[in-house]
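Please produce the structure of this protein holding zinc ion.
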Amino acid sequence: MINKLLRLLFSEKCPICARIAQNHYTAPVCSGCWEGISLYRGALCEVCGRPLASEESITCGDCISDAPLFKNARSFGLYDGVIKEAISLFKYHCTKRLSKPLSDIMLKIKMPEVDLVLPVPLHKKRLRHRGFNQSALLARHVAKRISIPLITDCLVRVKDTVPQVGLHAKERKKNIKNAFEVRNKCIEAKRLMLIDDVFTTGATVRECSKVLKKAGAKDIYVVTLAHGKGDF
Ligand SMILES: [Zn+2]
Ligand SMILES: [Zn+2]
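Below is the modeled complex.
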């Protein structure tokens, strides 16, 4: 009934297929397109979750030569197609309501056993500009559903970096260096789940893990919606 009423009030064209989105839950993306979002089932790096072309899952070269401080990173799908479109609507077009269906997707990942959930923070300037932190919205839903406390005032972004989009791996690493700080000790000896929307080169979550480990975190598990395919 409510869905019917909402449909009448807000019938929106799906930005992907141009049909009318009948389901308010995923609108403006129609349910047909939404159902096309699929879990990545191929081989991946056992540490950073990078999709691999190999037959089986192994540790990738990057993780061997420069092991990250997080235990592992896992994503739901590849950063492509409908999921890429949905993340972009959510993040850059203020379609905040997509945080709910997107975090439901995230919950399909095998959740690590943790004590606290933390989002990758935005710098306060960027937060003011965008009005919300997409990772914090995802983390809030996930934390609530798995009944684990959400901590948003511990890890902070102290450097207003230029967006990582469009930068190459080396530049990303340099850009994000010293961008984060840990403000309180609540993470000491705790197992953490660090949530972000997209894992591209991993530079951001690697840097976050560095300061979290330094501040005494026990284990860090990274969970993201989508993993870049390496085309950056
Ligand atoms: Zn559609
Ligand atoms: Zn790796």
